[in-house]
Amino acid sequence: AATLRANFPEFGSVAAYPTAVLDFWLLVADGMLSATRWGRMRDLGMQLFAAHNIAVEKAAQKTAAAGGVPLNA
Questions:
Q1: 63 and 70 in contact (C-beta within 8 Å)?
Q2: Which of 29, 41, 49, 73 is the most buried (most CB within 10 A)?
Q3: Is the pLDDT of residue 73 over 60?
Q4: Which pLDDT tens digit goes with each residue over 1-60?
Q5: How far apart are CA 24 and CA 8, in angstroms?
Q6: Which residues have a Cβ under 8 Å from the Cβ of 19 and sit 6 or more positions away?
């Protein structure tokens, strides 16, 4: 999570983006992204995967809080 926060400062706020959320999506990425396929780029791929899903999750939360229906992206 610390590396993701360093590389993507928009996720720097622990209040807005709890470490547990970052850790969860990085764990999912770890299980989904093949080291054989990604090679040296796997760490970046995992961070991008996590960042995407965290951003989609945050947008869905905002939509729901405003009374809307969150959509999957």
A1: yes
A2: 29
A3: no
A4: 999 999 999 999 999 999 999 999 999 999 999 999 999 999 999 999 999 999 999 988
A5: 17
A6: 1
* Residue type at position 24: F
DSSP string covering the chain: -HHHHHH-GGG--TTTS-HHHHHHHHHHHHHHS-HHHHGGGHHHHHHHHHHHHHHHHHHHHHHHHTT------
Q: How many CA atoms lie within 13 A of 32 on its CB side?
A: 12
Q: What is the DSSP letter of 33?
A: S
Q: Residue 54 contacts by C-beta under 8 Å, 6 or more apart in sequence?
A: 11, 17, 21, 22, 25
Q: Are 57 and 24 in contact (CB under 8 A)?
A: no
